[in-house]
Amino acid sequence: MNALCRLLLANLLLAAALALHAETLQIVDDAGRVVRLAIPVQRIVTLAPHLAELVFAAGAGNRLVGASAHSDHPPAVAKLPVVGGPGRLDLERILLLKPDLVLAWGSGGQQLDVARLTALGIPVLVTEPQRLEDIARHIELIGRLAGTGYEAMRAAFQVREALRGLQNRYAGRAPVRVFYEIWHTPLMTVNGRHIISEAITLCGGRNVFADLAPLTPTVTMEALLAADPEVIVVSGERAQRDRLLAQWRGASRPVAAARGHIYFADADLMHRATPRMIDGIRQLCQDLEQARH
Fold it and tell me: What is the pTM of this model?
């Protein structure tokens, strides 16, 4: 029996032992898959950085035993074993960690990894944050699975209250046409189904490429000039802020560049569907408000 087979057998025995002392739950995940698992789960592995954050937000950080590459918040996550990232998942390490739940990200290109883990008998729950409400929903779901429902409900309530406060503050503001840049060469943005687009709408903005079909479409400069946004929001790492903004400054078109309405969005906040996204949205709303004056 090779090492992988021994690990698989050990995981199956552990799952069977836990099932004797736990409630069996059957749920449908965001990919429409039926997942059966014993709750409360004791050992969680996450396959995307935002999922590790959500586990901690749900009060289940002590159940997290492994996380994907680039998981760095809260700081305690950085001390956990790294199980790889998209396209390079370390199945053997995951088996060694003996998880009774793996959390995956639907848009993270992990379909093959999900299939492999499921075939090995490991429960995998696929999550897909499409709306801002999903941040709170996923926190509550993790809390339910980990037996930390009270902490999760409290965190979810805080997310919903913060979003409601922003909605009340910026509802009725004059609409502003926004181009949100997630990559510069080639130009890439988000469509109207993306969670970031909902954040733009929450702030009173109008995503100029909302009608495009791909979730993260590539657009030409000609298309951007035709859309003529009043605001350009450039996203990226904080350390690259000045360089990213400089790529647009001094341009005479579109109107956003001509008027100096170029703003920066911290991708660490805006590109992770976690409670910290509220901070990114709050800054976005302030930027759009400044552009109105």
Answer: 0.90
Which of 113, 185, 99 lies closest to 146 in space, CA to CA?
99
Nearest to residue 69, comparing CAs of 100, 110, 101, 30? Answer: 110
The single residue listed with the structure tokens 């929450």 is 202
The structural domains of the chain, ordered by start, are 3-157 (3.40.50.1980), 173-292 (3.40.50.1980)
The structure tokens 């949100």 sit at 180
Which run of H or E residues covers position 153? helix 149-170
The tokens describing 24, both together, are 């069996």
End-to-end CA distance of the chain: 71
**pLDDT, tens digit, 9 for 90 and up, residues 224-273:** 999 999 999 999 999 999 999 999 988 888 989 989 999 999 999 999 99
Is the preceding peptide bond at 254 cis, omega within 30 degrees of 0?
A: yes
